[in-house]
Amino acid sequence: MNTQELLDRVSFTELDARSRAKKLLDEGTFSELLDPFERVTSPWLARQGIVTQADDGTVVAKGEIDGQPAVVLAIDGGFQGGSMGEVSAAKIAGSLELAAEDNRDGIPTRAVILFETGGVRLQEANLGLAAIAEIHAGIVDLRRYQPVIGITAGPIGCYGGMSIAAGLCSYLIGTREARLGLNGPAVIEQEAGILEFDSRDRPMIWSFTGCEQRHRTGLVDDYVRDDADAIRAVVIERFRAGRPTACRSERVTAFLERIKVIDAGKQATPEQAAAIYGKGFES
Asked: Are residues 222 and 215 in contact, defined by beta-carbon separation less than 8 angstroms?
C-alpha cells in the first residue's frame, strides 16, 4: 500500500456501528429501521439504574449491496460492551426472519452481521440468551437461501453466545484488531487458573484468539486489513460466490476428528493449534 492509499484509507474499526453499515451498503441506499427516534430501549436496564440507549446498541440498516437487497445488522460495541439484551437481540433475530421470508417470496435479501460483542448482557441474562438462540435459528434459516456474512473487526471482538452465531455464518471476515472465542480471557483465567490463561498477557491472547490465528485454523474465512473499502470488497466477493458447499456447523465430523488429536494434558501453543486445525475440515 503506497502513501496515498494509506491517506485515503478509512478505518472500519474506528467507525461507529451506523457508519459501518453505511460503508457496506451501496451509496445512497441506507435506510435505518427502528432508528433511535423510535426509542426502542431495554425495559430492564433503567430498573437497575443503568442508562439506556435509544437503539439498545443495535443498528438495523436496509439497502443494497452490489445492487441486491441487503440488511446490515451492526452491534454497537460502545454500549454495554456490545452485549445482547432482549431488545437488541430481537432486532437482529427479527431482521433475519424477515430476510428469510423475503427469499421465500422471491426477493433475494442477504444479510451481514457486524459482531462487536461480548455475548449476552448479564443484566438481562435468560432473556438475552433466549433471543440469541433466535438469532442462531434465524441465521440457519436464511443461509439456506443466501450467504449470511459475519464480520468481527474491533478490539471488543466476538464472544459468548454471539461467537456461536458467528460460527453459524456462511462466511466470517476478521481483522488484525479483532478476536473470536467462546469464553473471554478473564472467564478462562477465573475457571482454569492463570497458568492456563493469563488474561493480562495480550500477545498470548491474540496469538490464540486473534483473527489472524483464527484464519490460520479455518475458523475465519477472510483475514482483511482494517480498511472499510477492502472489507466491503470481500463482502461483495463472498456474496457473488454464493452459498458455500458446507458451512462450518455442517462439518461436525471433521471438527471432532481434529479435536481427537489434541492432548488436553499439555499446555497448548498457537503453532500446535494452527498445525492441527490447518489440515482443513472437508471430511
From this structure: yes
Query: Domain-by-domain residue ranges, the chain?
Result: 3-180+220-250
239: how many CB neighbours lie within 10 A of its CB? 20
- Three cell numbers at 104? 421465500
Q: What is the pLDDT of residues 43-99, one digit of tens each?
A: 999 999 999 999 999 999 999 999 999 999 999 999 999 999 999 999 999 999 999
Residue 8 has pLDDT above 80, yes or no: no
Closest residue by Cα to residue 148 from 139, 157, 161: 139
Pick the CATH number of 3-180+220-250 from 1.10.3720.10, 3.30.43.10, 3.90.226.10, 3.40.228.10: 3.90.226.10
Cα–Cα distances in Å, from 227 out to 108, 109, 231? Answer: 27, 25, 6
**pLDDT for residue 283 is more than 60:** no
DSSP string, 251-281: -HHHHHHHHHT--TTS---HHHHHHHHTT--
Report the alpha-carbon distance of residue 75 to residue 63 in Å, rounded: 17
* Its pTM surpasses 0.70: yes
Q: What is the pLDDT of residue 1?
A: 59
- In the chain, which residue ranges form alpha helices assigned H by DSSP? 3-8, 17-24, 86-104, 125-142, 161-168, 185-192, 202-209, 211-216, 228-241, 252-260, 270-277
